[in-house]
Structure prediction request, 141 residues.
Amino acid sequence: MTRLRRLALGILILTPGALTALAQDLLPSWNDGIAKKAIVDFVKATTTQGSAQFVPPEERVATFDQDGTLWVSHPMYTQVVFCLERVPALVKERPELKDREPFKTVLSGDREAIARLPMKDLEADLSQMNAPWSLGCNTND
Prediction:
């Protein structure tokens, strides 16, 4: 038994409530549901020796982005999706935007055309949409 395993076992045996802590909810801030169950089941299956899905620790890879979270960035960032979905509401408030790019292309729903929009245009126009003042929110919201 490695020194680290002996130390961990000793802590579990000597620490009152350690087993209770292990049995507690692994994701206490998550609602019970299929997503939470799938994640917990996946971690259990891939970290339990003898499991058909076991992955040795040296082969495990986790990718963290931004602030240390698992942040979806492909096929596009969540902020971009949010802004693209906000275009119709923004154009309703400001009808003059419906004939201006990139809004016109986004409103067309043509994904290939949207994908061809120059990134600098998207960044400039859509970043303004993501700003709190364009969403009708103040900094306290």
